[in-house]
């Protein structure tokens, strides 16, 4: 007798936020510092301290790489998960506006998954009345794909749509000059 397992939700988007090449210089510098610190005791101890420090820091960095996964039922960012029904408006940002979203416009209660080596961010509005978190803000290398998977828009498209609506509303409110 077999029991049918529920169907796995379809993955619509998946991304691991790997550190950039420049980020890996920090473990190297710290390992070199550890090696130099132990070198006066003995050269072997210096080399060992440098290698152990390098391996430990690389393992720590690799274990803490967050993943963004969007399925038909939920969104997972790092260790946090939210059901899709509780996600409202989704907007992607690049450049100056992404910088403002990470700083000046950031809400203190927002859930953040920010990585310094990634410029673009995506903002997911939380519409769960039981949740005090106003939105999630996550770094991503592919904001267009992530916003598309969640049915949202990039900020520049949203702004152009709003400008077109404003222009069309202004055109409709003007009296007809031909009469």
Structure notes:
This protein is of the alpha+beta class. It folds into 2 domains: 18-63; 68-169, no CATH class. Helix content is 39%, strand content 23%. It contains 5 helices and 9 strands. It has helices at 25-38, 43-63, 95-102, 143-149, 155-173; strands at residues 11-16, 67-71, 74-77, 80-83, 87-93, 111-113, 121-126, 135-139, 153-154. The strands form 2 sheets. Strands 6-8-7-5-9 form a 5-stranded mixed beta sheet. The protein is elongated, with a radius of gyration of 24 Å. It starts with 10 loop residues before the first strand and ends in a 6-residue tail after the last helix.
Q: Main sheet, how many strands, which sense, barrel? A: 5 strands, mixed
The tally of structural domains comes to 2
Total helical elements: 5
Shape: elongated
Strand order of the largest sheet: 6-8-7-5-9
Distance between the termini: 80 Å
Q: Specify the structural class.
A: alpha+beta
Overall average residue pLDDT? 86
pLDDT under 50 segments (min length 5)?
none
**H-E order:** EHHEEEEHEEEHEH
How many beta strands in the DSSP annotation?
Answer: 9
Strand content: 15-25%
Helical amount among residues, as a percent range?
Answer: 25-40%
Brief description of this entry?
With 179 residues, this protein is an alpha+beta fold.
Layout of secondary structure:
Elements: E1 11-16, H1 25-38, H2 43-63, E2 67-71, E3 74-77, E4 80-83, E5 87-93, H3 95-102, E6 111-113, E7 121-126, E8 135-139, H4 143-149, E9 153-154, H5 155-173
Parallel strand pairs: 5-9, 6-8
Antiparallel strand pairs: 1-2, 2-3, 3-4, 5-7, 7-8
Helix pairs in contact: 1-2
């Amino acid at each position: 007798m077999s029991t049918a397992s529920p169907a796995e939700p379809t993955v619509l988007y998946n991304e691991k936020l790997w550190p950039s090449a420049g980020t890996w210089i920090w473990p190297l510098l710290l390992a070199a510092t550890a090696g130099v610190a132990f070198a006066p005791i003995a050269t072997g101890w210096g080399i060992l301290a440098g290698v152990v420090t390098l391996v430990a820091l690389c393992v720590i960095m690799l274990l803490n790489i967050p993943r963004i996964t969007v399925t038909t039922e939920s969104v997972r960012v790092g260790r946090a998960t939210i059901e899709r029904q509780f996600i409202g408006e989704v907007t992607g940002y690049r450049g100056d506006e992404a910088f403002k979203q990470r700083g000046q416009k950031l809400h203190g209660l927002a859930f953040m998954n920010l990585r310094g080596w990634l410029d673009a961010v995506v903002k997911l509005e939380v519409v769960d009345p039981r949740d005090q978190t106003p939105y999630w803000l996550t770094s991503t290398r592919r904001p267009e794909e992530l916003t598309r998977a969640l049915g949202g828009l990039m900020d520049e498209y949203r702004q152009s749509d709003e400008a077109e609506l404003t222009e069309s509303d202004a055109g409709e409110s003007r009296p007809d000059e031909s009469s």
